[in-house]
Amino acid sequence: xxxxxxxxxxxxxxxxxxxxxxxxxxxxxxxxxxxxxxxxxxxxxxxxxxxxxxxxxxxxxxxxxxxxxxxxxxxxxxxxxxxxxxxxxxxxxxxxxxxxxxxxxxxxxxxxxxxxxxxxxxxxxxxxxxxxxxxxxxxxxxxxxxxxxxxxxxxxxxxxxxxxxxxxxxxxxxxxxxxxxxxxxxxxxxxxxxxxxxxxxxxxxxxxxxxxxxxxxxxxxxxxxxxxxxxxxxxxxxxxxxxxxxxxxxxxxxxxxxxxxxxxxxxxxxxxxxxxxxxxxxxxxxxxxxxxxxxxxxxxxxxxxxxxxxxxxxxxxxxxxxxxxxxxxxxxxxxxxxxxxxxxxxxxxxxxxxxxxxxxxxxxxxxxxxxxxxxxxxxxxxxxxxxxxxxxxxxxxxxxxxxxxxxxxxxxxxxxxxxxxxxxxxxxxxxxxxxxxxxxxxxxxxxxxxxxxxxxxxxxxxxxxxxxxxxxxxxxxxxxxxxxxxxxxxxxxxxxxxxxxxxxxxxxxxxxxxxxxxxxxxxxxxxxxxxxxxxxxxxxxxxxxxxxxxxxxxxxxxxxxxxxxxxxxxxxxxxxxxxxxxxxxxxxxxxxxxxxxxxxxxxxxxxxxxxxxxxxxxxxxxxxxxxxxxxxxxxxxxxxxxxxxxxxxxxxxxxxxxxxxxxxxxxxxxxxxxxxxxxxxxxxxxxxxxxxxxxxxxxxxx
Length: 702
Description:
The chain is α+β, with helices and mostly antiparallel strands. Helices cover about 20% and strands about 35% of the residues. The protein contains 11 helices and 41 strands. It has an 8-stranded mixed beta sheet with strand order 34-35-37-36-38-39-40-41, sandwiched between helices. Strands 5, 6, 7, 8 and 9 form a 5-stranded antiparallel beta sheet that branches. Strands 10-11-12-13 form a 4-stranded antiparallel beta sheet, with no helix packed on it. The longest helix is centred in the N-terminal third of the chain and has 18 residues, at about 55-70. It is globular.
């Protein structure tokens, strides 16, 4: 009997494990070992990395059969589905943006799988559908990733993904007629369309080999120019750099087409080049060469290009350079670094709007173009704001959201310093019934860490409250307040929703980010564990009432802390997590995460550090009682390939970790999460929350 036959049989057969209630599929093991600096590491489930193999498909089917059988028997599922549907079924309108004299905005009537793009001649006129992504697929699994209007107003390019994959396709619409043109770009990735004349630039990779599109390493990204009306095979190569296969390359074009920007990035920062288009034949000029810094040009005013950067400024600053005087060392500071993080900048008429992240919440300021502060713009409360404005128009729009505050759209008058509601959604709950507080606790090494807690007013700190603790802690990403109807259902049922602003994130600048990377990654786990300990010590809850959740890098977080402190949590849900820290860099764009993680090939010290916390490799097997664990992933996730979750779940089920269930939910025609249709989102979270609430002994609101 060959190994393939054994593995297929192993994926279907069942065996009793430490969990008396479940017969997990028995996962076949291979005799695979890797040698790292003289240390042998077993990788018995290596075969699960082949996501298109017949035996892997059999394993997925067997696992889903077990998880479906378990999840569908949980109580309150239909009550949760009904409440989720009620909470999600409200009209959501995005803030308007202006293009060539018309207003565009996205809107979802409530339960549409994808939001629809509308156009209006005036803000008071009847909106008309311009592009409906729901018409691109019968099941809503084609998602709109971005749109881009040509500078002459003739065309709009739109970027889509299928079934959650990171691979992109680009199509073009004639704006005047709404007709879809024949232009079609494939195998693009991490890109938009940057228009110049009657064509656009985009970034792409060579087409992958058959069967490897969702797992093969992506290398040698190239920039092409596509002329409208020509086949992709005729596209002109604008830029490539064969010296660095594992870097990203993209370009942007100024609205007035006076210059182009070339970005070269390793994932942690970017080098910056400009090309002056005012005279034919000019080449790219290097402006910033430290790839560990971040440089984000925002817009030009005449020959002055404004740039957001953290060069010599961990909290970021606003700088500028002249198109007439390009080169290294030519940038000047416009708005100096402050004590809190500058996250965004944009022009509004002859003013500048700067968005700061202060204590993990938005603070917005109005400046003149010389960098002089005019005022802070008042927001409704503590939360997150997003602004829309243009340098040639005084109209300003913004949206505001918080944990119990769905997105409300406003107009802002810069002259009178006043905001007016443009659109406020009607939701199926009363926001006044809830409250959010921000607390500060000390991590293991004494570092202060902030955390948001949202709950029903009148909650008693009696040590009996269910808690949903969420974290991320990586890649300079900030967790600012935002509305989520699923979490609200948990809060309505008497729970506390807690968000910890862990090191590794971007809430407190680049130093905060670096304090949670590479050989400092344990700080992130300590911050999260300390958050749970704080909630217990302050009598909000007890360990048997704590559920933890995180996705992607947050899935890694959940997997790591469960192994380190299984006694502290009742239930854990790692979603699309990075679970194999020794091999993550070998798939798709995993190499891009090395700036945060380091790799097992860097040095013996780095290898040992990764091995010490890697969720796959640190699962206990000595009878230690683990929390109930629901692992989630998807078959089209080519960001964090599903093999991470497959191998992790197989190892959990094979280990002696007590009787609580260790199951995996594997979605189909879905990816890392972005663009997932609402119908699939609701299905997933019915499973997730019924699993969590059953172990926290909660019942949804009637």
